Structure of TolC family protein:
Amino acid sequence: MLTIVRIIIIGLLIGLSVTPVQAENPTRELSGKQPSSVLTLQEVLTKVEQGHPLLQSSQTQKTVAAGKVLKALGAFEPNLVNDWELERLVKDGKTVSVGFNDTFVEMRHPWGIKGFAGFRAGIGDVEIADLGIENSNQPLLGIVFPMLRGLMTNPARAELQKSNLADKQADLEIQQARQDLYLGAATQYWNWVAAGKFVEVQEKAVSVADARSAQTMKQADAGARAQFDGIEANQEVQRRRDLLIKARRKLEEEQYRLALFLWEGDNPVVPAQMMAPEFPPLESTLDSDQFKHDRQQAATARPEVRLVNLEAEFNHIDLDVAENNFLPDLTAEAQPTRKPGEFVLGLGYRFGVQLSFPFLQRGARGDQMQMEAKAQRLKLLQRYRMQQVALDVDNAQSAISRAQERIQVSQQALQLAQELEKGERTRFKLGATSLVFVNLRERHVVQAAEELITALADYQKALALYQWAIGGWANGPFAAEVNG
């Protein structure tokens, strides 16, 4: 099918060219240099991946995620503590100064268990009740064990669990940014290609009108044709030059817009010296089985859906903590006493069990209500995202089908316009028609060619939309086949 399209467009350009006169190249006008190479869509997407500021800014979320992990781990890192305490008291009828100097490492386990180990040096006339070393020193060993609330489920461990998901969240945010940028780049790329093709068509039309005007004026000066025909031919030249200027301006506008996706260092690059490629061949029609597979895959591949699922995981962790807060705070502990007055009386270690239970449980119930409401909201949002993704795929498939139909219709319209133009030229040579009708037929050919170019560009943009809809670009430009 594409071969036919190329033959039609080439035939149009040859049919319009009656002299070797060529219009000025718009790219040369923009850059002052002859275009040297063809810019492909793959190169554009690679430029986006390598240097687009928005994609690079989204990648900083990986650093943020690593920072969250470090912050969460900070709650469980060992702490070195040196505690020096001195107390004045009466002992055996005398006022004495006694105390201790403790040096120990304090540790906390994600399960909620706290412990420490170290060494205590007594100060003054002290007595050691347990594990005495040289009468005034002792090793320090202690543990605090939550038996209900906080055992294995606690806020500190919840933060650690959520921080471990932060890297996955960063990946999904990067994928979403990449998908959106690739879709924007591909859409703009094909707008640029179409604008370049419009300029080529208008250049050939101006070239034809210029040659005809020169020939008509020469004939009018020789008396072989009326001066009125020369004016008519010159008017058509000016009209087509006006359309060419508009086409060049449109090309420049699309170049600048495309430059926002082409970055080298800190600056966007305008592709003024790059040539637009030919439109790639039309792909085979997607069969129903492949379409169903892509539709199902999109529900698991699109970052939007996966981000909602991940947010639900965050909320589930918080909900577990909220439900755990309904349990009584029952804590068992065994550790050295930290009061110098008790220490010198010989109470070196103490053991205890503490029970705390909020009577109305308002705090726990409030947290639970919030988390359950958020879970319901995320459930509804997930349902919406799933339907949104399915409709995105359906919409992209519809765009592809309608674009294919438009290409077929535009091809037929262009063929008919060329036949009418050819016949009108024959009639003009025989004197059976006027220059006005020849110009009109040529305008119809140009219009039909532009409609075909638009249909081909819309088809490629529909393919890009389909790749975006199924999440085909989530992992980079090489994750899916790219036309152009």
Notes: The chain has eleven helices and ten strands.
